[in-house]
């Protein structure tokens, strides 16, 4: 066992970090970005303080409440930086080295793949690390004034950094696995696509659980849960942000943190292996790691499901609904991990497509005809699949809202599995097309759709919660998820969230249109690419 | 210093290097010559531990490359055929990065960088961003990067490609200087004249095999059977053609004006015999010359023979 100082020494003595940070910070953009960032933070604090001090609109009952709210606002924005932008920056890492042909020089040095990968995740998102460091004094000040508990503060930063660790390594992995992936935009698209997939799935799985048992999967609900502890009137009376896990109350961050660290570690190992040698099997190490993780999760799921008195496999009736979250947590984690693994397996790599072209075949991968790359699925089929996935998701939400989901039945699991299957296919297609095609416009649209879908409603709902809490109920956070809102509108739930439903539907239609456009554009690009390859001597 | 034993590299059904047996002695400048696709770069990449052989072993300074990658990389300086650079770094930072990556610490690092900058004549550009350097300067900087950790062995894959004539001359003198310092150099090129002046041993590669290896003189001796003779005739051209055509050792003949070029399968003694035959048969010879084959001709003859 190496001493803990080894990690610090590895970072400090890593030449790649020094050189790369220096190169990246040389441009004036970093200074400009930092200045803008500090200005945004200051503006955010000023605005909130103005809301607190305004005699006509006293949004905050006390200064403490005001800064408590600001703390989470700042942490939320930093989370966005850590989760999305680090993935994007790291997704350029290896692809740029490939396209500029510096990778062989790097490989010829005695630096190990781990050292290079560590250097890349530490230095490529250097601007983000600087922004986070600049935000830290403000955040800790707000936490002190807002009397944020140390556990919440530490938990928030731990989840954020763990999410950043995962996100960096996911980007790095996407950049490293494609041997011929030289366009930075392609790897970026793949990384963002996978991140989106994870968030989308965790968001959808959120509806599985009667309580917030899945809050730990996505960092955004974690923050909402933390906020809920301070603002109980904003949330339903039965709202419990903690998990009831094996009879004990567990904070969601205890799921988030290890999950992100483990997934990040798997990606790191896979990426460093591919950085060191292009000729190892694609994803072999990370697949093994994921497989091991899956195995552990499966064991956990099986154990908790078998022994827990409220689970369905034993056939015993549920004594008190929603008293135990373990089966749902285990099942959801399992489903999420399975989904990621399935997407990785189904999504054909460029080398597989090229190998198929070389042997004169048009068939690649598991679903040979539709996923071969050069015989892309027809658009109507794609649309039907997408709509079917959404319907399955909507049906699921409806079952949740109408309590049809309690207890967990085999039927609901079947529906869930079907929904996941459609999600896998849809997002595999998306990832495949992003991965293979050229051109950045569709990627930009997809990213815009992602921001529109996740970030904007999250930010809006947070503002509503924190600023206008006297008039807005916590349920509306979930109503901003349009499919959930759709399900609610058909259920017996209070129907005063029609406006949110309309808003959510508009957002959702825009997102679907953007995604469909992105997929179709990418497939066109893919066709062009394949034609070019065929015409090449 | 470098030894490959039955080295083989396969890419699917394509065999890039087949059963390669190569030995480079300490202090040698060994030139690996061959057309594009002959397997030179693959061989060098395997020796540099960047590619894993399908079969066979490589020993560098007595170390098995497969089992001692890190140690091998520490003593080997590698320059690929196509390479990129970090354009956002200055020349000095670039060299400092690779020096650190190779484990060179201060104060040796600073002096090493200064020495390298002097050797590659980039002292004036030390604080210039790499993105602003010309192609030739970048090439020199990459050579400098290869030297910065003071390696005992240099693997240079097409180092002169893209260099102007002046740069090539400077590279040749640099290689000779490095050889004088006791470094072992394996250099590849498909431009033969680049290597013939500096290499004291060459290996000719074709289709993944080394088909000839040895010093330039040794290889020349091996193909001496195909001697080139040029005869200028003042009088008696028909008779001269008749004599040369009838000679069993003359492989081919080309006539241009009063000049006859013949390829003869014989040694210098036989050249004298031919001259004697011509003169004794009344042919008036104004010039009779035996041409030494240069490396390029050697290569063409060997490769042509190999293909046929």
Question: Can you give a write-up of this model?
Answer:
The complex is a heterodimer of chains A (537) and B (308). In chain A, helix 4 runs parallel beside helix 9 and helix 17 (410-436) packs across helix 21. The longest helix of chain A has 38 residues, at 498-535. Chain A has helices spanning 5-12, 15-25, 28-53, 63-91, 93-99, 103-107, 113-123, 126-145, 150-177, 184-205, 219-230, 253-276, 284-307, 326-346, 350-358, 379-401, 410-436, 441-467, 475-479, 482-490, 498-535; strands at 243-245, 248-250. Chain A has 537 residues and is an all-alpha fold. Chain A is elongated, with a radius of gyration of 23 Å. Chain A has one domain. Chain B folds into 2 domains: 2-220, Rossmann fold (3-Layer(aba) Sandwich); 224-292, Alpha-Beta Plaits. Helix content of chain B is 37%, strand content 30%. Chain B is built from 11 helices and 14 strands. Chain B has helices at 40-47, 69-75, 91-101, 108-119, 135-147, 165-180, 192-196, 216-222, 237-246, 268-280, 295-307; strands spanning 2-11, 14-24, 29-33, 55-60, 63-64, 76-79, 153-157, 184-189, 201-206, 209-214, 226-235, 250-256, 259-265, 284-291. In chain B, the strands form 3 sheets. In chain B, strands 6-7-8-3-9-10 form a 6-stranded mixed sheet, sandwiched between helices. In chain B, helix 6 (165-180) links the parallel strand 7 and strand 8 (184-189). The longest helix of chain B has 16 residues, at 165-180. Chain B is elongated. The mean pLDDT of chain B is 81. Chain A binds chain B through residues 15-16, 18-19, 22-24, 26-27, 97, 99-102, 104-112, 277, 279, and chain B through 45, 48-52, 70, 73-74, 76, 78, 80, 82-89, 93-94, 96-98, 100-103, 142, 145.
């Amino acid at each position: 066992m190496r001493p803990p100082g080894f990690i610090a020494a590895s970072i400090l003595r890593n030449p790649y970090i020094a050189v790369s940070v220096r190169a990246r910070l040389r441009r004036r953009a970093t200074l400009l970005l930092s200045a803008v960032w500090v200005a945004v933070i200051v503006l955010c604090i000023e605005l909130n303080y103005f809301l607190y001090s305004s005699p006509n609109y006293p949004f905050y009952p006390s200064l403490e409440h005001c800064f408590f709210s600001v703390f989470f606002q700042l942490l939320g924005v930093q989370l966005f930086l850590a989760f999305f932008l680090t993935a994007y920056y790291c997704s350029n890492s290896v692809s740029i080295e490939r396209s500029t042909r510096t990778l062989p020089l790097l490989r010829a040095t005695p630096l190990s793949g781990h050292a290079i990968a560590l250097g890349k995740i530490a230095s490529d998102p250097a601007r983000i690390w600087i922004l986070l460091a600049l935000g830290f004094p403000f955040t800790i000040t707000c936490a002190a004034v807002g009397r944020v508990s140390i556990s919440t503060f530490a938990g928030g930063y731990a989840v954020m950094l763990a999410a950043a660790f995962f996100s960096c390594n996911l980007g790095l992995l996407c950049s490293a696995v494609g041997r011929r992936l030289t366009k930075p935009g392609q790897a970026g698209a793949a990384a963002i696509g996978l991140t989106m997939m994870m968030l989308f799935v965790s968001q959808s799985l959120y509806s599985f659980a009667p309580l917030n048992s899945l809050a730990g999967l996505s960092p955004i609900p974690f923050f909402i849960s933390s906020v809920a502890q301070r603002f109980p009137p904003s949330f339903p009376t039965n709202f419990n942000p903690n998990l009831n896990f094996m009879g004990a109350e567990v904070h969601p961050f205890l799921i988030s943190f290890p999950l992100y660290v483990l997934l990040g570690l798997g990606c790191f190992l896979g990426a460093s292996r591919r950085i060191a040698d292009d000729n190892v099997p694609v994803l072999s190490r990370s697949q093994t790691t994921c497989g091991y993780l899956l195995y552990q999760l499966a064991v956990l799921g099986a154990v908790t499901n078998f022994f827990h008195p409220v689970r369905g496999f034993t056939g015993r009736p549920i004594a008190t609904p929603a008293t135990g979250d373990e089966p749902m947590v285990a099942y959801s984690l399992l489903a999420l991990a399975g989904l990621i693994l399935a997407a990785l397996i189904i999504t054909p790599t460029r080398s597989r497509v090229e190998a198929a072209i070389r042997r004169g075949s048009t068939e690649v991968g598991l679903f040979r005809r539709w996923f071969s790359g050069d015989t892309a699925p027809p658009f109507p089929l794609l649309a039907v699949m997408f709509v079917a996935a959404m319907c399955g998701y909507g049906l699921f939400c409806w079952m949740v809202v109408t309590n049809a989901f309690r207890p967990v039945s085999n039927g609901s699991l079947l529906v869930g599995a079907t929904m996941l299957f459609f999600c896998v296919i849809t997002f595999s297609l998306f990832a495949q097309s992003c991965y293979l095609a050229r051109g950045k416009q569709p990627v930009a649209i997809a990213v815009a759709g992602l921001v529109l879908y996740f970030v904007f409603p999250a930010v809006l709902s947070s503002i509503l919660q924190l600023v206008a809490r006297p008039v807005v109920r916590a349920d509306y956070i979930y109503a901003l998820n349009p499919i959930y809102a759709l399900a609610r509108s058909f259920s017996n739930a209070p129907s005063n969230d029609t406006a949110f439903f309309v808003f959510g539907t508009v957002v959702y239609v825009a997102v679907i249109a953007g995604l469909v456009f992105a997929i179709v554009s990418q497939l066109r690009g893919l066709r062009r690419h394949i034609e070019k390859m065929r015409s090449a001597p | 210093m470098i030894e490959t034993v039955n080295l083989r590299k396969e890419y699917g059904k394509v065999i890039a290097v087949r059963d390669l047996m190569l030995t480079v002695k300490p202090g040698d400048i060994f030139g690996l010559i061959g057309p594009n696709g002959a397997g030179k770069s693959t061989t060098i990449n395997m020796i540099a531990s960047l590619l894993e052989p399908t079969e066979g072993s490589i020993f560098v300074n007595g170390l098995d490359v497969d089992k001692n990658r890190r140690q091998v990389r520490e003593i080997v300086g590698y320059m690929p055929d196509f390479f990129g650079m970090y354009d956002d770094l200055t020349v000095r930072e670039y060299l400092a990065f690779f020096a650190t990556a190779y484990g060179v610490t201060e104060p040796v690092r600073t002096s090493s960088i200064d020495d390298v900058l002097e050797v590659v004549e980039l002292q004036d550009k030390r604080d210039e961003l790499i993105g602003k350097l010309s192609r030739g300067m970048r090439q020199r900087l990459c050579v400098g990067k290869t030297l910065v950790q003071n390696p005992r062995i240099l693997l240079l894959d097409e180092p002169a490609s893209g260099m102007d004539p002046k740069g090539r001359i400077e590279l040749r003198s640099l290689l000779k200087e490095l050889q004088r310092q006791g470094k072992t150099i394996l250099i590849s090129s498909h431009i033969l004249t680049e290597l013939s002046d500096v290499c004291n041993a060459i290996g000719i590669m074709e289709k993944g095999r080394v088909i000839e290896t040895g010093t330039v003189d040794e290889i020349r001796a091996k193909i001496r059977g195909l001697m080139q003779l040029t005869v200028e005739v003042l009088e008696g051209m028909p008779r001269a053609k008749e004599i040369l055509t009838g000679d069993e050792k003359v492989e081919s003949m080309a006539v241009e004006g009063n000049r006859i070029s013949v390829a003869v399968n014989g040694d210098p003694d036989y050249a004298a015999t031919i001259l004697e035959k011509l003169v004794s048969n009344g042919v008036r010879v104004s010039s009779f010359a035996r041409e030494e084959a240069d490396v390029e001709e050697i290569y063409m003859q060997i490769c042509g023979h190999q293909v046929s």
